[in-house]
Amino acid sequence: MLKHTTSTFCLLLATVGGLANMSLAAAQPTIPAAGYVQLAQIENVGPDAPQVTRQRIVSSAEQRAQALLETAEQYVRTHGAEGARDFSHLPQFVDRDLYVFALGMDGVLLGSGGWSASLVGQNVADETDTHGNHFFERMISLAREQERGQVQYFWYNPASANETRKVTNFVRVGDVIVAVGFFPERGTRTEARAMLRAALLELEQRPSEALSAFQDPNGPFKHDDLYVFAVDTRTGTFVAHGATPGLVGSNAVALLDASGRNPVREMVEAAQRDGHGSLDYLWINPMTGRIESKRTYFRKQGDLMIAVGSYDPTNVP
Fold this sequence. Notes:
Layout: E1 14-15, E2 18-19, H1 60-79, E3 94-95, E4 98-104, E5 109-112, H2 135-145, E6 148-157, E7 162-173, E8 176-182, H3 189-205, H4 210-214, E9 222-223, E10 226-232, E11 237-241, H5 263-274, E12 276-284, E13 291-301, E14 304-312
Antiparallel strand pairs: 1-2, 3-4, 4-5, 4-8, 6-7, 7-8, 9-10, 10-11, 10-14, 12-13, 13-14
């Protein structure tokens, strides 16, 4: 087994068509509330928030990974399977923290410019991450069904010195799977407010399509650890959740954070009273699988409360 760090959260796997769900109702440790969770001052979404469009946000890391994958794909198309060996030593297949690796459909690692270079020539289909998940095998399985795809899993990130979600995009060229992985970047508070403005505009202009759009993993309302969720203020139930669509229809106001408080209930009450606001509380970050401090901005539109929050890794229990 390949070991880096331990975690209590499960591997996230996805195809380009959709992300696997991670339950936010997982057991959470008991953490004292003092010093970690407090109601923020009610604030407007703000006219200073940047103007937004419906185009999906693509981070610089994702852009670099895509460019590297395209270069590697063309190289294999030109040089064949033998060219995959060059990924282990040619500099054009490494971009700072990003690197190319290639698998045969039989599971043999053909080349790698990163940590797996020592495994080149070996069958890695049975290798697992620290959770026991066969991510190489999953990639091969997807490649049998489609030319391009994506797998997601938790992996050690040297930049943050802990285990975070890693996204690996791949393309199958003949019997060779060419892949590049990257660590998604964290969303900022400014980006969270901008996404909320976009979500409110979407709901106003396309009310019949908005809730589905909020849950599209490849749409403009899901970006790294930023996502939209919507609650019916009359019933207190989720009507959309960009990180965990399985929560739709469940009782949102009954959910507890790690300190035992009801953050969604507080947001709904503030939204009904003031129309908009923000709240600081503890929640699971879908990118890291860890409980972190989160500030969520929300606004009531009709009978719905629309919300987007960002995480603060410097303020965690």
